[in-house]
Amino acid sequence: MARRYVVTGRNGQVAQSLIERVERHSEIEIIPLARPDLDLADIETIERALTEARPELIISAAAYTAVDQAESDAAKAFLVNGAAINEISRVAAKLNVPIVHLSTDYVFNGNKTSPYHESDPVAPLCVYGQSKLEGERRLIASGADYVILRTAWVYSPFNKNFLRTMLHLAASRDELHVVADQYGNPTSALDIADAILTVADNLLSSRDGRLRGIFHMAGSGEASWADFASGILRISAEMGGPSAIVHPIPTAQYPTPARRPNNSRLDCGKLESIHGIRLPNWQIATATTLQRLLAGGAG
Ligand SMILES: NC(=O)c1ccc[n+]([C@@H]2O[C@H](COP(=O)([O-])OP(=O)(O)OC[C@H]3O[C@@H](n4cnc5c(N)ncnc54)[C@H](OP(=O)(O)O)[C@@H]3O)[C@@H](O)[C@H]2O)c1
Asked: Which of 65, 134, 268 to mutate to test the pocket of ligand 1 (most atoms within 8 A of CB)?
């Protein structure tokens, strides 16, 4: 019988990627739980939806991810990213099933000059980061069997993301101005899905405590947003897709409601040494995503 993994959310980048990737694994069934059955803004829905799904493992991928909107909608962000994770964790502990929970590089303030380790102090600059940190803390305190995977700068053929925005803009503009003083690790959601499936397998195969806890999980190689945009549009041009000249600008010239860290690069060595996972380089994964999007005529 197939292993039943619940994933929270259905249309999100990671949920869609899991649904696609599991086609390669006949031994696993992914059960997406989404609104109205599971609404993270309605805590009452959570226990019933999770219990009825009879999961062997819960993948907690749904979140309030609108980083700028969260600044003026903090109560909702904390409800979905904090209180709902507390409830999911409580139910997971009750059902005695492990949780793989996704968190973010935005738990850091960016003052460090090198990539962040899991043990580095957290100090989020924005409401989104604070609410995701609250989710981490609630999960850790719950007594559930857990892995927290902090990831970053997620893109995919699905949903809204930076790669798709750049393609879309380049279809109608010759020049783009992109922030060049924030550094991170662009990460493919399809690679995240593969990594989650490996982590899940490791958790269900062994009680070893070293497999549990917080891990950083991002694409290999680093970039500024301007580097990432240039890479996307260079590869797109090579594939016959839209292209534009990218002009680097400082964050000060692109004010947003939410403050973001200048450095949110993640050191992913712990995930590699303990779970045996290293995500591909972002330029290679970007080419794979672009190939799909351009072949499908999407942008
Ligand atoms: N995107 C990034 O750059 C990034 C960076 C670092 C960490 N992360 C983390 O990685 C995880 C996955 O991100 P993603 O890029 O896949 O997110 P996404 O594409 O923005 O999708 C978010 C998902 O959350 C679901 N959702 C939002 N509010 C909900 C609610 N009240 N009840 C139920 N579901 C709700 C959405 O529901 P529907 O399916 O109904 O639309 C959607 O499936 C999140 O935990 C996020 O915080 C993302």
From this structure: 65
